[in-house]
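We were asked to recover a plausible sequence for a given structure. The inputs and outputs are reproduced exactly as logged, with field labels preserved.

PROBLEM: sequence recovery
POSITIONS: 69
GIVEN STRUCTURE:
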């Protein structure tokens, strides 16, 4: 499992995908999220603005990433 570290209270899902290097741009993030290809804590989430907090885990294309504070 990979990790991203955030300095703020939360990070939005689209930003987290970019920070983790799983997508190249915000447009790419929007597309994969809207297509139902991203899970958050094991559940499909189609909201690009979904707030992720330390301890949350998101997955895309077989890559699991945990958010750390």
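RECOVERED SEQUENCE:
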């Amino acid at each position: 499992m990979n990790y991203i570290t955030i300095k703020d209270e939360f990070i939005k899902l689209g930003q987290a995908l970019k920070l983790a290097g799983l997508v190249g741009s915000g447009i790419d993030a929007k597309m994969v999220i809207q297509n139902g290809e991203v899970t958050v804590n094991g559940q499909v989430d189609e909201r690009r603005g979904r707030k992720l907090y330390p301890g949350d885990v998101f997955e895309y294309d077989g890559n699991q990433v945990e958010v750390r504070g």
